[in-house]
Design a protein that fits this description.
Order of helices and strands of chain A: EHEEHEEHEEHHEHEEEEHEH
Number of domains of chain A: 1
CATH class of the largest domain in chain B: Alpha Beta
Radius of gyration of chain A: 18 Å
Largest sheet of chain B: 8 strands, mixed
Strand content of chain B: 15-25%
Number of helices of chain A: 8
Oligomer: heterodimer
CATH architecture of chain A: 2-Layer Sandwich
CATH class of chain A: Alpha Beta
Strand content of chain A: 15-25%
Radius of gyration of chain B: 25 Å
CATH topology of chain A: Alpha-Beta Plaits
Strand order of the largest sheet of chain B: 1-6-5-18-17-16-7-8
Largest interface: A-B, 39 and 48 residues
Helix content of chain B: 25-40%
Distance between the termini of chain A: 15 Å
Number of strands of chain A: 13
Structural class of chain B: alpha/beta
Largest sheet of chain A: 5 strands, mixed
Number of strands of chain B: 28
CATH architecture of the largest domain in chain B: 3-Layer(aba) Sandwich
Chain lengths: 252, 722
Amino acid sequence: MATIKRYGFVIDVSRCIDCRACLVACSVENNVPLDHTRIWVHELDIKGEFPNLSRTFVPYNCMHCEEPPCVEVCVSGATYKDKSNGLVLVDQEACIGCGYCVEACPYGARYLDQNRGVVDKCNGCIQRVEAGMQPACVATCVGGSRMFGDLNDPNSEVSIALKNARSIIRLDYEKDGEDTDPNIYYINAEGMEDPLVLQSGVLPHDPKYTLPESAWNKVLKPAMFAAVGGAFLVQAVYFTKQLIEGEKEFEE
Amino acid sequence: MERKAISRREFLKLGSLSLGAVAASQFIAPQAARAARLHTDDPNGDGYIPTMCEMCVWRCGVRARVKDGRVVKLEGNPDNPHSKGKLCARGQSGLMNTYDPDRVLLPLVRAGKRGEGLFRKASWDEALDITAKGMLKIKERYGPEAMVFSSTHNLSQVQFENLLNGFGSPNYGTQRSLCFNAMIVANLMTYGMEEPGRDYSQVKYIILTGRNLTEAISTSETGELMDALARGAKVVYLDPRFTKTASKATEWCPIRPGTDLAFHLALINVIISENRYNKQFVDAYTTGFDELAASITDYTPEWAAPITGIGAEVIRRIAHEFSDAAPYALAHNGWRTSNFINSFPTERAITILNALVGNWGVTMFPAAGEGSGGLGKPPQPPYPRISALRLDGVPWKYPFVPLKLGIFQQMRDAILEGQPYQAHGWFIARQNPVLSLPDRQRTLQALGKMDFIAVVDIIPNDTAWFADVILPEASYLERYDPLLPMGDKAWLRQPVIEPRGEARSALMIYKELGERLGLGDYFQYKDEIDYLNQELAPLGLTFEDIRTQGYAQLPSGEPDLDKWSTPSGKIEIYSSTLEKGKFDPLPKWQEPPQPKPGTFYLLTGKVGQHTQFGTQNNQLLHKYQDDPRLWMNAEAAQNLDLRDGDLVLVTSEVGEVKVAIHATTAIRSDCVYLTPGFGHLSKGLRTAYGVGASDSVLHVTYVDPISGGQALSQTFVSVKKA
């Protein structure tokens, strides 16, 4: 979906030290309840034989997909992709708390706040960004791993980081030729070279939500995601530097 | 009988009642913060207030966002060299210390037995009167030296020292002997300064000896290390454990515990024997090279290999790479360096390695230290002459331990043994010796010997739990402290909200207590702002001038690059001071004790989400911490028929704890590691209580004869299924 700006994250995996400053900063900035979180650092299993060990930390949050499954299943229209900045946002006034989007997100990036009866997730700290600040997680990233900005702007920090990256990985979730086309780009991610490095059950996962067709037969698009059972293909898509430089839309 | 006179609702059973809720209901809502809303470039238009973090001792600059009298967000101050616009997880969580539901919000006086957790509310006047009376009674009966004072590394430390010096007690317990005595004393002997500064801007090669910078975080330095790595600098990391730093380092050497000294002696051997040292620098600026060269001939890589478990060819290669990279090379001297009996010579070897390659002025430079930086202070009359010996044996038994460092574990043992005299009272400010000192059982016994214990803190920590009086301090977001000179600026801590409850600043607690002790002349300031104005007076500034930007500019003055405050005025490879003290003037190999078959080295360390023993009750850090576990090599666990998550009994010669194991490849098979900082005793800490186990229960007490350091990784434990 073409938007004026395309806000996204570039995460330099080689610089994440799993200190969790981003997690705490996000919780405070966004009043996230103590029993929930909007962002994560996934600790991959230690690889290798002692003493030749390696370990990788993968920060993640809402991928602000170009083709977000959560938007497609939202029955109230509360979850939407912002046309001006490309962020996937939740209008919590309109959210009815049905939780379908929570189940539909293959990245597990949403939670249902039972107390407020609404769904919550990373909003790119749009309240800060609009005031000229970085998202809370990016502003305080001790290792200098997290970056945020407009991927449509070739001069933004994120676009420059992509141009200079040694390697780039995205965690696409693909099914039936449809791709979530996520807007988190992992760079310098040597430890993530195996496309299945994010083990099953972690990221991305099969949507758990199965649409009861009899009840929701008017909601046609979600059914596409829900009706197919069995194995889903998890694919990490590799982009070569040349491809990135040549193609602005970052499509295969 | 007496207890019946107090109505039931005046008792506060910490931990069973919600202290925070009870206390909060007693007081009117906090007024709007006195501090100005100064800047308006934040999204909510409420502005932020510049102040200083206190979640560890790195002291980052903070910008606090305040809304309707509440702190809603903390940001790193981009102007401050220690934060550079960032805060770590602890710094980000700092407001939860202030809003901890377990905060002590009003003075409390013990109403039950010690350790029972039953306290009654008291007014400040009553609590301070009781404290002063308790201290004066001890002074009159046993002399001022029978009162022990302990506190560590606060900005208000100068007034704490004023209190103890004015009172006339020599007994000052910092916790530094549990931390960095070995590093500080080694630097003093070699460079004549406590800790030289480090500069990563040009560094190409770094050896980190157990300096776990990505988990024991110093915000700016951790960032600089990551910048250096991204630039292509090589980082060699020595640690028996595959920490997060090990996973980021270019090369991890899982060295056998206690043998860092052998590794560094072998590096020195290669660099000297192959003429890889900086002869010009060594000739001009150091003393004792020839003696060193003669003393290290046996310390070859082949000698060090079986000791350290690191191949001779690896050691030789690292020596080559390090000297090739010089002067853009840095051997980091570590921070918490109280590990083994040979920690002091290890630190000496590191300082000498740096001197040999001449990295001074490139990756290492003179540190400004913690001087007054041209600031003033309130007038102080001379202190009473103290004739009593210090309980910790400094300097009469341990001549090289700086008085302001001291030997905390020795002081505890002297209290327990009543030697050279019996102490009877303990005044403790924001310190938790019950968890920090080795051999917790002995610490609790020492507390039991006290006639009177007063604790200043913001939460009912484990030591407060055993106190007679708890004086509630304002949190760092609620109070002023003395200015902190750092480089060319003096940084301001100022309240961003009104103190919750009746909490007060340490500056005012010490003053008001001092006045009751007849020491009013030592506290010649009306209030905190008056104190700050007296500090700023020599600069021609007032508090009002600096509150907006949060710092005062100090007169510039670069420290001399080639002046070292040693007896020779040079970098002393051969230490004449150590020689006078009849200690080895050069680092020599010393084999530390090893675990008997069937036992393991018990390693200690740090996690990125907590500081020492003080932050485990912070709900935001609790939210994002890993479960505290005993790390054990997966194969070693299998040999003991243990599986990941099994509950085990961990036994040392002084204690036993029960904890779940984390079976992992990330640790040597002869070691276990217990997540530090947990195992709290205080039921008043409702988030932290009952979580994990305390390594202080297991740690065996040791005192290094030169530096006074404890040996925190020199405890051996057996592990069996619980």
